[in-house]
Amino acid sequence: MKLQFKHQKFQADAAKAVVDVFSGQPYLIPTYMMDRGYGYIQQSLTEDTDFTGFSNQKIVKELNDDLILYRIKKIQRDNQIQPSDKLEGRYNLTIEMETGVGKTYTYIKTMYELNKQYGWSKFIIVVPSIAIREGVYKTFQVTQEHFAEEYGKKIRFFIYNSAQLTEIDRFASDSSINVMIINSQAFNAKGKDARRIYMKLDEFRSRRPIDIIAKTNPILIIDEPQSVEGKQTKESLKQFNPLMILRYSATHKSDSIYNMIYRLDALEAYNKHLVKKISVKGITESGSTATESYVYLESINLSKSVPTATIQFDYKGAKGIRKITRVVSEGYNLYDNSGQMEEYKDGFVVSRIDGRDDSVEFLNGVKIYAGDVIGKVNEEQLRRIQIRETILSHIERERDLFYKGIKVLSLFFIDEVAKYKQYDASGNPINGIYADMFEEEYKDIVDNLQTKFGEDEYLNYINAISESSTHAGYFSIDKKGKMVDSKLKDKKEKTSDDVDAFDLIMKNKELLLDRDPKKSPVRFIFSHSALREGWDNPNVFQICTLKQSSSDVRKRQEVGRGLRLCVNQDGERMDTNVLGNDVHNVNVLTVIASESYDSFAKGLQAEIAEAVADRPKSITPELFIGKVIKDIHNNEQVIDDKLGRAIHYDLIVNGYIDKTGALTDKYYDDKSNGLIQVADEVDDSKDAVIGIIDSIYDSKSIQFENARSNNIELQLDKDKVSMPEFKALWEKINSKSVYVVDFDTHELVRNAISALDSKLRVSKIFYKVEAGTMKQIKSKEELETSGSFVKEAASTYGSKNAVSSNVKYDLIGKLVDETGLTRKAIIQILQGIESAVFNQFKDNPEEFIIKAASLINDEKATAIIEHITYDVLDEKYDTNVFTDPTIKGRLGTNAMKANKHLYDHIVYDSTNEKNFASELDINSDVAVYVKLPDGFYISTPVGRYNPDWAIAFYEGTVKHIYFVAETKGSMNSMQLRLIEESKLHCAKEHFKAISKGDVVYDVVDSYKSLLDIVTK
After folding, report:
1. For a tag on the chain, would you pick the N or C end, based on fewer CB atoms within 10 A?
2. How many CB atoms lie within 10 A of CB 354?
3. CB proximity list for 518: less than 8 A, separation 6 or greater
4. Which helix (H) or strand (E) holds 860?
């Protein structure tokens, strides 16, 4: 398998943020004569060429500190980051990226973009450990072809080794993009090897390696600076003579954030579906004093028939006592079924199984909940339960994803190799206690697997893999080839730097993803808990730590190995572009914890809250004041004090915030239903205002799923599928189509010129100088908020040199990149606009480009809407679009029983959807309806579009029998943004084309508005 890589907007945005800081820097590649050293004898006639060095051009003087700071502040405001007060050195830029979103990919892309724009070609990546170094090196290898296709060149990359100094000469003398990867210990430790970089070495012709490196003015990229940058390291880094330092991490230290220009933190990555959804399967020791009888409630099973429970209990057989698992109904007697063990004699008869709270109650009054274990439980039994629960979650996830071509992996972290693998006196490997537990539980689960119709291929797959071959250990290997415990590199963090263990994991990354049972039967990985950083595998769906959770093991670190979105057998990442809204149904990481769901979830939330500590925690007027918002036409407005307070007051009036400034449930309900109201003054900038509101940290906005909470799995009702009304509806809507956009370029150019002339207004760059005096300090709070200063004077200076002769802007090229139009069309537009409009470019080039591109794109979108047509294809959707996805919900929370739905239940996303479905379900005019799955979509020029509902009415009751509906919380077209409007228009054209007008498509906000349309 070869992993495929995609262009993702957030990674491009992060690279653009860095590039834009230096906008106007000319493209230059300076050369110099390298130090040849002593004792050098001429070897060739090309001596001068051999010793020509290539360096990064320094920042031109026209890009002075004031202009760079102005650029940084603008980028920060655009990215909802608190603007910096000053430059933190020349130049330190911070980029925050959550684990699992492709941090290494992003800074490789940034290198290419800096080289493309400015010619910079020398980069050094500083990493804190060998583990991360090996992971970075692997990423360069697997992305090389991908980036070469995009940029037409390859990066030459190598790991610094003090014994291979010729690589440093090549680094300096090669004109292509060169990257040196170095771990901080290689230049910052006290050992002899670390000092070599600063020494004059005979084998390096009496030169110091650091001097050859420093002459290139490299750009330093620090990966995980919080683990690299101590006081000594910061001093050592100066010797590299860096042009700038870029810092990338998910967890920057609060006192080491220098000019942050881009942030994609844990909160944003999770809510934007850029990483897996986290689900927690907790195990709770009940601590009941009522009994010493061992009972573990594995799950409650709900279906059309009576509910059942899966429980584990002790059983006395001929060979002694062992634990057995049984599916039981009300009336099941544990005493009779345990070989008459005395511990179950006193009333252990199942009296009630309740799916509402996932509980089982016995006649003796003992009540336990799913995940609870009562009675005598030692650590060995708890680990066995964890292993069994991991296998159960694995099988469940594997069955869901098998027919999507996705290999499922599970990861166990353990603290001693001996618990997994031991060696007899002859050195032969034998199972440790955890390996034995795993094989016993795996065999029991597979042997008792309840099969479903149509699962023959999956059953063949698991039957081809034995319990002994489906697990493997990834540990350090000693000289005799035996697995051994990893040596701790960092005793505080309890992490390891064992190269051989990482080499094993990295080399087998693609092989592990192969689903061929002959090539790659391994689905369960056991690894040392010290190997928690520097590597991951995208198809890890279950993580289980088989050791006591302790304060020194961070929960974010535990889950980090499985956060990356998964890939299928073609190496294609299963992200929003492929799966749409289904991305978090497929990409779920289940953590099998050795504690309760509440305990683990609260601990993980606390760590995330700590990681996003710089985000505001409540809604105040100050949150809005000074922020820049854009309206639907991309016009910018700075929120002043009066407007900020008006926005805040309106949120209180609408019930969106409580008296502490915390967001209410009403805010989240209205947001999911598209009903958010904001102050009239900023109604046309609603999206920007909501973006500011969502920038606060609110624990409600990142909720981890309880793996035991989804107790309903939707079952397709075959009788409904066979109904003549549904068959007729499906026949009308299942055709696929292709679109054609045939607009007149001349017309687009004319419209763009008109839009730019009437709407393009660019602000000049000004520098404001203020002076004041501290008259009196009244309180500590006043001092912290600078309230003690009294402003006495202010002056504003206009920038006369926003565009200078030495600062080059490729205006045409930038607009081509942003709009996708040809250079010819862009030139015609720029030549056609009024001189006064074009001359604004000199005042503020960056803003001119951004606003001009936005206005041109608006006209382009309008042209698409006006000129798109759809043609019907022979290809049709099959009814397996309804059986492929596994749809789950929790009864009473986001799921309800349904009578006329194509499935036995319906899972709803909002109160509006719930109300709409309830009305459909009881109306006598409705024959059958279905909430369409994400696999049913229409292709449009602005992305895939998934309609919400398909409805068939009984003939003779309404005018339009077949209806496809999109439910929106608001029908106000001003609130439907251009892209959304474009998709809805495309959907109308699609259904018109495939059904010859028999199917009506429209947007409705209630069942009443639906009736208004179908009865006309």
Report:
1. C
2. 14
3. 464
4. helix 845-867
